[in-house]
Amino acid sequence: MRYQGDFVLKPMLKLAGAAALLSYSMAGMAADVKSKLESQLGLEVSAVADSPIEGLQQVTTNKGLFYVSDNGQYFLQARIFDIDNGMQNVTEQSLATMRLNGIKQFEGSAIEFNAKNEKHVITVFTDITCGYCRKMHKEIDQLNALGISVHYLAFPRAGLNSKVYDEMVSVWCARDPKAALTAAKQDKSVKAASCDNKVAEQFEFGQSIGVNGTPNIILEDGTLIPGYQPAGVLAQALDG
Predict the structure, then answer these.
(1) Catalytic site residue 141?
(2) Are 117 and 218 part of one and the same domain?
(3) pTM for the full predicted model
(4) pLDDT 10s digits, 11-64
(5) Does residue 134 carry a catalytic annotation?
(6) Catalytic-residue membership of 127
(7) Catalytic annotation, pick one of 99, 134, 157, 173
(8) Short-list 154, 152, 170, 151, CA closest to 202
(9) Which three-class secondary structure state does DSSP give residue 153?
(10) Second label for 212, Cα 20 to 30 Å away, from 126, 131, 197, 219?
(11) 21-46: string of b/e by CB count within 10 Å (b at 16+)?
(12) Could you tell me if 36 and 29 are in contact, meaning their C-beta atoms sit under 8 angstroms apart?
């Protein structure tokens, strides 16, 4: 004798089995894409996820955000816009989330110039030899007076095997990193120093979210502003 439960249970088991098979298949596909990009393109892949477009995977790497066909054959650097939702920049939304999540790992290792009456916090990728970085730093008191705290992350533009990288390590490892950063941006010498630091990690994080110059400014919503902006303009954008 068959019970009514048999008619419900068996289809449910089949459904669960199909879902498990699909999940296994998708995991295998992601692993294949990751392996191919790392072996053939030399990228470091930290995440593979579904994109809004069927047939494309969204891939987070040490060199930025990309899209790859499910079979791993086609590789795209692109921006996806959702026409039905007012040309919403879907790619930028993903990047904004990446930026904000990435910033969290550097809490305690950024050089912070905090406003007394803080209204906003911006994160700035900086290079001590960059002219516009120096120009922005001259306005640090003005930014603080406007209620804007500035958290600096290192981005030695010449790379990790450069003199400026070594100099920025010395800044981050100085007894007073804030004073050392200000001195370096005034073309004053900074005493050589070394310590356990995250200068390289900050540089690599910058590359992974599309930073290719300095200053680059991350706002509180994850928006990335490339280049120098006067203190007043930044305040208007933040208060906006």
Answers:
(1) no
(2) yes
(3) 0.80
(4) 665 665 554 444 434 456 678 888 888 999 988 888 888 888 999 999 988 888
(5) no
(6) yes
(7) 157
(8) 154
(9) strand
(10) 197
(11) eeeeeeeeebeebbebbeeeeebebe
(12) no
In terms of domains, do 121 and 66 share one?
no
pLDDT tens digits, one per residue of 67-121: 999 888 999 999 999 999 999 999 989 899 989 999 999 999 999 999 999 999 9
Angle (CA) 91 96 99, round 5° = 125
> How many of the other CB atoms lie within 10 Å of CB of 173?
18
166 a catalytic residue: no
Q: Of the candidates 76, 93, 110, which is a domain's last residue? A: 93
Task: Name the residue range of residue 231's domain.
Answer: 102-239
Residue 30 contacts residue 57 (beta carbons within 8 Å): yes
The residues pairing with 123 across neighbouring beta strands, listed in sequence order, are 151, 218
Among 130, 176, 187, 221, which one carries the catalytic annotation? 130
Residue 118 and residue 58 share a domain: no
